[in-house]
Design goal:
8 helices, about 75% helix
């Protein structure tokens, strides 16, 4: 893994604040694009919440819930959220900033995370990647999702859309 990949993975939250601020400045939302974008972003957050409610970080290779279908459902949810935000901004330059941020940081995070999982779990992770691991029967747990700090993603989503709503209201 390159230094640059590791840097993007480590700095992705801080870079996210910079990308969000830039996207907000570039945004030209309307109530229609705001509402449509919010619906898409909420769908992405539902994916993230579902995943976080099944994830036992650092303790196992999780194979329940959405992890039965995709290796990185939290990141899938984040990409869907980003698409909703891009839609809400009604701005091609903002969408480019969002797409660039997501493509650089998510790819770096996946590479970093997969290397760590392989190091910690070895053959169990290799089996999971090759779809050889059997699914685990586990119920969704909201408490588990909160232990995984999904409330932070929810707060960020709501805060971002509140700022976009202020921008719509200011332009109305």
């Amino acid at each position: 893994m390159s230094r640059l990949t590791g840097a993007f993975a480590r700095w992705r939250v801080r870079l996210g604040f910079v990308a969000a601020a830039l996207a907000l400045v570039l945004a030209h939302p309307t109530w229609r694009t705001w509402g449509a974008g919010l619906l898409v972003a909420l769908a992405g957050e539902c994916i993230r919440l579902w995943a976080a409610g099944h994830l036992e970080k650092g303790r196992e290779v999780t194979r329940s819930g959405p992890y039965q279908f995709v290796r990185h459902p939290l990141y899938v949810g984040s990409v869907v959220i980003a698409g909703g935000v891009a839609m809400a901004t009604r701005s091609l330059p903002a969408a480019v900033v969002i797409a660039l941020y997501m493509s650089l940081t998510i790819a770096a995070a996946v590479r970093t995370e997969e290397a760590q999982l392989r190091e910690v779990f070895g053959p169990a992770y290799d089996d999971y990647r090759a779809s050889r691991g059997a699914p685990i029967a586990r119920r969704f747990s909201l408490a588990r999702a909160m232990r995984n700090r999904e409330h932070r993603a929810i707060a960020g989503l709501l805060g971002g859309f509140a700022l976009l709503a202020l921008k719509v209201a200011a332009g109305s």
